[in-house]
Amino acid sequence: MDPVEVDGSVLEGGGQILRVSAALSCITGSSIKITKIRAGRSTPGLRPQHLSGLQLVSDLCSGVLQGATIGSTDISLTPGKIRSGNHTADTQTAGSVCLLLQVALPCALFAESSSQLCLKGGTNAEMAPQIDYTLKVFKPIVEKFGVNFDCDVRMRGFYPKGGGEVRVSVSPVKHLQPVVLTDRGTITKIHGRAFVAGVLPYKLAKDMCAAAVRTIRKEIKELYINIQALQEKDNAYGNGNGIIIIAESSTGCLFAGSALGKKGVYADKVGIEAAEMLLRNIRHNGCVDEFLQDQLIIFMALANGTSRIRTGAVTLHTQTAIHVAEQLTQVRLTALRLNLNLIKVSGLILF
């Protein structure tokens, strides 16, 4: 069959297209050709993180990957059979290990036996989920589809050095089950962690905590807020600081706000940024936050049945994931904008 041609410049126009396209190519066995990769970015083409992800998928499916070099704007992938066993990906930068997991996890689910992934790079990086988000928000929700994986954070890595490492063990599935998340319920619990690593003083973690709590208290007065201040000592490479705050609902929904410190930015501001992000995601009354909705599209497309997930405003990343999933599968995805935003995926992927 001729490869499915994917325009890498449409909608979000970035790494999201690469991740969803490559994973679905691996799972469906459909060859793909992606053109105009990141065409609208200041540095078009593949960056080290994207290249590592594509190489990882190609390794997982015994595929033939062509044109994949730093800066390349056109690649093709011809997948083979998905292989279980040990697989390693190293961005050799602070590129996000969580984005590597996003592309690899769906593929590893459909191997014949368990897979072990060694992912190296940044664990707490800008423009990507922090590893704490992946473990505390993404993992519990994706487990509702029948996904089962364990993740061991061996070393945390930050911008610009990277140096982080996580080991992930993925159990295979026969099929995924559909998920319905349409009842938000009430917020029952707010907790989180603020951390410093390397030479940064512990006081920064406490300042982030205090600022976050003050901000949340302006809108949510009745709940106990438990944000722990932590000093990362032995399992962190380089210097870094950040915070993640998680809200849980009475129906099992999870929402988060997070932020990372930067040179010259006061710790208070980092804590306030994370708190305001959390409050924004609670206000929309959906069942997932703005950063989870796009990550769930591929699992909704692969599930055996119809999934429905109530969201806030459908993000550009989510629209992009829907667009690519429709190109590479036999499912129908609709984002309905009525009184509520409801993402509905009907059908089962055809192998």
From TrEMBL:
The family database entries (InterPro entries) matched by this protein are listed as:
RNA3'-term_phos_cycl_insert, RNA3'_phos_cyclase_dom, RNA3'_phos_cyclase_dom_sf, RNA3'_term_phos_cyc, RNA3'_term_phos_cyc_type_1, RNA3'_term_phos_cycl-like_CS, RNA3'P_cycl/enolpyr_Trfase_a/b, RPTC_insert
Give the keywords, sorted: ATP-binding, Ligase, Nucleotide-binding
Q: Which residues form the active site?
A: H317
Which CDD domains does this one have?
A: RNA_Cyclase_Class_II (cd00874)
Q: Which domain of life is it from?
A: Eukaryota
In the UniProt record, which is one GO cellular component term? nucleus
Give the family per the record: Belongs to the RNA 3'-terminal cyclase family. Type 1 subfamily.
Q: Where does ATP bind?
A: Q102, F291, L292, Q293, D294, Q295
Q: Name one GO biological process term.
A: RNA processing
Name the species this protein comes from. Sphaeramia orbicularis (orbiculate cardinalfish)
Keyword match ATP-binding: yes
Q: Where is the RNA 3'-terminal phosphate cyclase insert domain?
A: 182-282
**Described purpose of this protein according to its UniProt entry:** Catalyzes the conversion of 3'-phosphate to a 2',3'-cyclic phosphodiester at the end of RNA. The mechanism of action of the enzyme occurs in 3 steps: (A) adenylation of the enzyme by ATP; (B) transfer of adenylate to an RNA-N3'P to produce RNA-N3'PP5'A; (C) and attack of the adjacent 2'-hydroxyl on the 3'-phosphorus in the diester linkage to produce the cyclic end product. Likely functions in some aspects of cellular RNA processing. Function plays an important role in regulating axon regeneration by inhibiting central nervous system (CNS) axon regeneration following optic nerve injury.
Q: Please name the SUPFAM superfamilies in this protein's record.
A: EPT/RTPC-like (SSF55205), RNA 3'-terminal phosphate cyclase, RPTC, insert domain (SSF52913)
Catalysed reaction(s) here are: a 3'-end 3'-phospho-ribonucleotide-RNA + ATP = a 3'-end 2',3'-cyclophospho-ribonucleotide-RNA + AMP + diphosphate
EC number(s) given by UniProt = 6.5.1.4
Q: Which top class of enzyme applies to this chain?
A: ligase
Q: What is this protein called?
A: RNA 3'-terminal phosphate cyclase
Show where the RNA 3'-terminal phosphate cyclase domain sits: 11-333
Q: Tell me the GO molecular function terms.
A: ATP binding; RNA-3'-phosphate cyclase activity
